[in-house]
């Protein structure tokens, strides 16, 4: 089994990740890493770790490769037909890989792992705990897994056409949809936990969700969902600004609280200790929801504009990723 991932200037987060990898109860046979052109010593760190690593390590240096291209290169360069995928910024639970493997049966092509929050600051905790879904919210029949916690057969990756190399964000969702369209069979494994942290500033958080929504626009995903968001906020703003009876504004507040209920539930389930800390945590949830929604409403049309330009220029933004050819600039370090 091969474990693949991409890196770009990850020297700060890699030691914790590599420690969690070394602590797995089931180890992969190899780790294949594609570096997109790091300038912070990431490759040197990987080379140093490889000297005493419990697994074979291969680093492919491909300057300019985005996440999709990097993952395709890593899978192409992997020696095994069973591929686990994760991100360098995660910390893997000790039984992460064992749980993924345990869910793989003869009638399963893709195992969807799960994820959980980790944090070093109050804002990281707030954003992660509010935004990451709880396991009991997941419908295994429709769940689209993140590629920070995924196991799939090489044949499934090929059938889906690989990761879409024209896309910089939401690439794993596009792969998931291609896998489902190809009729491949999924299993959900909530015990395969890869922990990751959200951004630690409001600006970083807004930028992240702007990019996610821009990726939706580029790939033509979820038009109805985005349209409903625009409509809901337009209706709410009209209700707040219009000279309306006093009952309208309380109804708008109740409607927003209903909309934010799942986010409040997540925050409550993951609340910090202490009454004051809990109140402060819950009070910030509406701001998290609104800032994220505004960022999405700005990012989605930017993505749609990119998509229209690509189509006008004769480029097919829905072309499947293809994968595998090593660019001439890539350097393989085993």
TrEMBL record:
Pfam families: Glycos_transf_2. The chain crosses the membrane at residues 233-261, 273-292. Keywords: Membrane, Transmembrane, Transmembrane helix. Residues 2-114 form the Glycosyltransferase 2-like domain. The keyword Secreted does not apply. Gene3D superfamilies: Spore Coat Polysaccharide Biosynthesis Protein SpsA, Chain A (3.90.550.10). PANTHER family: GLYCOSYLTRANSFERASE, SLR2126 PROTEIN. This is Glycosyltransferase. It comes from Myceligenerans crystallogenes.
